[in-house]
Amino acid sequence: MTHKFTVLIIEDEKNILAFVGKVLKKHEYRVLCADNGSEGLNLIHSQCPDVILLDLGLPDMDGISIIREVRTWTSTPIIVISARSAEKEKVSALDLGADDYITKPFGTSELLARIRASLRHSNRLITDSTLYIRPYQSGGLCLDFSKRLLTIDGREIHLTPIEYKIVAFLAQNSGKVMTYASILSNVWGPYADDDNKILRVNMANIRRKLESDPAQPQYIFTEVGVGYRMKEDEFDTGDPAQG
Amino acid sequence: MKKLFFRNLGVTLLCLIIATALSFLFFHFGRGNSANIALIYILALILTALNTQGYLFGIFASLFCVAAVNVFFTYPFFKMDFSLDGYPVTFVGMLAISLITSTTTTRMKKQKAILEERDKKLAEADKERIRANLLRAISHDLRTPLTSIIGSSASFMEDYEELTEEDRLELVSNINEDAHWLLNMVENLLTVTRIQNDSGKVRKSLEVVEEVVGEAINRVRKRHPDLVVNVDMPEDFLMIPMDATLIEQVMINLLENAFLHSGSDAPVNLVIENQEDQVAFHIRDYGIGLDEAQIPYIFEGKYHSDNTDSYRGIGIGLSICKTIITAHDGTICASNHEKGAEFTFILPKEKETEDDA
User: Fold this and answer.
1) In terms of CB atoms within 10 Å, which end of chain A has fewer, N or C?
2) B183/A105 Cβ within 8 A
3) Nearest CA to CA, how far is B230 from chain A (Å)?
4) pLDDT tier, B284 (very low <50, low <70, confident <90, very high otherwise)
5) What is the number of structural domains in chain A?
């Protein structure tokens, strides 16, 4: 691939900017940097980056307001950089339209995985709708959307309709965190109860069916207080559906 | 302020009315003996002065008493008569009683307030001292890895040419390791700030036990990929009220201790027990065990082993565990089993309903 994806980093800490910039350049991304919000917005308007990495604590403006402003005219993936203890902040950023978040401090592999996942999902919508029909695969788990069939190591797993809907929704957004609210409205409809206990009960059942050890899951991870994240799709297009 | 005024007024009027009513009773049945009546008024006066703030009401009450005795209970009845013998003496006496009582009461109240203030200040100072001690311990603990980071990085930059590839890698991996240690410490400290916000209590929400356990293990495994944890938990769907970030921190600290300080690579056991109205978490390692003599003080931030350096920070981590669990109305304890150390913490379940689904 000759075309490089452009990543815009909006972050006021010079050292983090430098380190993330170096890592991304090394992995064949074109990197734009902004150390404050207004410069960041200018770059988004003029350069139309493919991914935006956004630190919420900026000196000149609230990061949340940048998400709000950007979401009025583009669906460019936004990955929020945030502190660990601020679940509320993460959830509100995600609900306003951020695609994902990464918690400070993060490792390079984690950062690259997040960027990959976000890019894949944003491109899938525009370019290749057949990707939706391609099964999700990760480790021994394979989910065939057209047959509504979930197998682990070739063994068929029976899911209730609700459980299937949850797993399918997470698999379609694999690698990205999905908030409780977004799963609830996608599975139970827009008028679903705010109480996420029903979702958590269903998740517990799914874990017991999918994971060999529910306390150390391999496929669906919990982001406590925020939502769930399914393991990244392995993107092996050559592998046909099993069963 | 206004409320206080009306309260004082109320007390004063009540005392005086009761005194007057009693006096009338005495006057009727006691055949005009006004000595007892004066006593009753003096009693009312003292009570008024005791139960009101400032001098104003006391003085008012004494004026009223003098006037009442004069008008109601001395000849000529229902008429002011200033020509009575010893009248000024009665008046001055009543006034003096009221003033003295008021002064004493006011002074007593002031002293009580001062004492309370002093107690509060002492408690505050105590808290401040504990905080200062903690800060000192932490600063000391932080200085060691920072020294190593600064030294290693400086050596990396200055002696870059002379160092072999192997040395460079060693320096950088030392920096990495120390930075991770620092991060762990900082996260522990941040959790404490989540507790102290409102009077030692935490903001709890219902969390699924296995999710919190899963995330904690995941986090530890990120730092220590070699750690193996065997989880043994009941099939039930368990939800208990907690601040998940804090409980995760407790599990992270305990699992990490088990991995780093047990002196063994054997898998760590995490056993979760669903008891009647509480959930118990046991973290067992299969290593050298704890120093029995130190177990009683282990959560006080004072655990030291012969090999002090490898234990740096362990004390603070454990005392933070204790703080977190106590804030959740739970208990935590340490012990040795036959083959190693065991830490147990217990969290209460939600009170009203059983969480079965």
Assistant:
1) N
2) yes
3) 9
4) very high
5) 2
* Chain A nearest C-alpha distance from B120 (Å): 32
A86-98 pLDDT tens trace: 778 888 889 888 9
Task: Please tell me which of the candidates B211, B229, B233 has its beta carbon nearest to residue A222.
Answer: B211
B244, B207 Cβ separation under 8 angstroms: yes
Q: How far apart are CA A37 and CA B47, in angstroms?
A: 69
Residue A13 included in any domain: yes
Of A126, A143, A178, the position where a domain reaches its end is A126
Segments forming the whole domain that contains residue A219: 130-230
Does the distance separating the beta carbons of B245 and A224 come in below 8 Å?
yes
Whether A27 and A109 map to the same domain: the answer is yes
Interval A117-142: pLDDT, tens? 888 877 665 544 555 567 888 888 99
A231 contacts on B by Cβ (under 8 Å): none
Q: Distance (Å) from the C-alpha of residue B357 to the closest C-alpha of chain A?
A: 7
User: pLDDT tens digits for B112-148?
Assistant: 999 999 988 888 887 777 777 777 777 777 888 898 8
Nearest Cα of chain B lies from the Cα of A160 at a distance, in angstroms, of 16
- Let me know if residue A189 belongs to a domain: yes
Q: Are A159 and A209 in contact (CB under 8 A)?
A: yes
Helix (H) or strand (E) holding B240: strand B239-242
CATH topology of domain B202-348: Heat Shock Protein 90 (3.30.565)
Establish how many alpha carbons lie within 13 A of residue B187's alpha carbon, considering only the half-sphere containing its beta carbon. Answer: 23
CB contact under 8 A, A222 and B187: no
The domain boundary residue, chosen from A126, A150, A169: A126
Helix/strand/coil for A178: strand
Give the separation between CA B75 and CA B73, rounded to whole angstroms: 7
Q: What is the CA radius of gyration of chain B?
A: 36
Tell if the CB–CB gap between A216 and B214 is shorter than 8 Å. Answer: yes
- 3-state SS assignment for residue A155: strand
Give chain B positions within 8 Å (CB) of A222: 208, 211-212, 214-215
Q: Predicted confidence band at B309 (pLDDT cuts at 50, 70, 90)?
A: very low
Q: Where in chain B is the domain with CATH 3.30.565.10?
A: 202-348
- Please tell me what DSSP assigns to residue B31: T
Q: ipTM score of the complex? A: 0.80
What pLDDT, in 10s, does the model give residues B50-69?
788 777 787 788 778 777 77
How far is the alpha carbon of A213 from chain B, nearest alpha carbon, in Å? 8
Residues of A within an 8 Å Cβ radius of B = 84-85, 87, 105, 107, 197, 200-201, 203-204, 207-208, 213-217, 221-225
* Nearest residue of B to residue A228, measured between CA atoms: B211
Contacts of A103 by beta carbon, 8 Å cutoff, 6+ apart: A82, A83, A84
* A115 and A134, same domain (yes or no): no
Nearest chain B alpha carbon to A208 = B235
